[in-house]
Amino acid sequence: EIVLTQSPATLSLSPGERATLSCRASQSVSSYLAWYQQKPGQAPRLLISDASNRATGIPARFSGSGSGTDFTLTISGLEPEDFAVYYCQQSGNWPTFGQGTKVDIK
Amino acid sequence: EVQLVESGGGLAQPGRSLRLSCAASGFTFDDFAMHWVRQAPGKGLEWVAGIGWKSGSTVYADSVKGRFTISRDNAKNSLSLEMNGLRPEDTALYYCAKVCTPRSNWPDAFDSWGQGTLVIVSS
Fold first, then answer.
1. pLDDT for B105
2. B111 contacts chain A (CB < 8 A)
3. HSE-up of A83 (CA within 13 Å, CB side)?
4. Number of Cβ pairs closer than 8 Å across A and B?
């Protein structure tokens, strides 16, 4: 099983600041890495697929990068609605998720 | 608009069975692989099982292999998860999810999710 480790567990930032979230895989997943946002009481929402492709309707302030084992989700200028939990997922034959990073208001 | 509506959750005793269903609409169901993902209360996401768009291929997480069976009825636009030998650690909100790419199994991300159905396993 491919283990995904997200860091930090919690990121405390103010609106307008830049958020940088990390996801590290225990072995190479090529570019098969997705990012999801989840707000309380809601289902997850796909943000990024294939490491860097923004999903339909996702604002340009969300960007993904990386390949192999190290990946980053960047939110360039946090909006109030961006405070949520973010999960990375390797979308291979047996998908796995990271444990999540909570972005909360400082 | 893609809609995924799960049902069938509830309270079950350890060792018993439950069958979850997911009704799909708004897209050509038989063109897309589908998955089940669960989330224990206050915890993160855990992938459970997936089924290919042609229904022949299935994959399972080790934690449910041999106990859960994923299936689909393309004529009814429906996805199912038969859960046998339930354990307390199976307690979770169960989501069905659709992959992004038509006529492709895996790897692929999940671009649409239902709102989930809650399963509680307790005596």
1. 82
2. yes
3. 11
4. 66
Of A43, A91, A93, the CB nearest to B113: A43
Which of B99, B110, B117 is most worth mutating to test chain A (most A CB atoms within 10 A of its CB)?
Answer: B110
How much is the pLDDT for A92? 82
**Strands (E) located in chain B:** 3-7, 10-12, 18-25, 34-39, 45-51, 58-60, 68-73, 78-83, 92-99, 110-113, 117-121
The proportion of chain A whose per-residue pLDDT surpasses 90, expressed as a percent, equals: 94
pLDDT digits (tens, 9 = 90+) for B102-119: 998 888 999 999 999 999
Listing DSSP states for A23-46 in one string gives EEESS--TT-EEEEEE-TTS--EE
Q: What is the pLDDT of residues B49-83, one digit of tens each?
A: 999 997 679 999 999 999 999 999 999 999 999 99
Interchain contact A92–B (C-beta under 8 A): yes
Gap from B43 CA to chain A (nearest CA, Å): 8
The whole-number pLDDT of residue B116 equals: 98
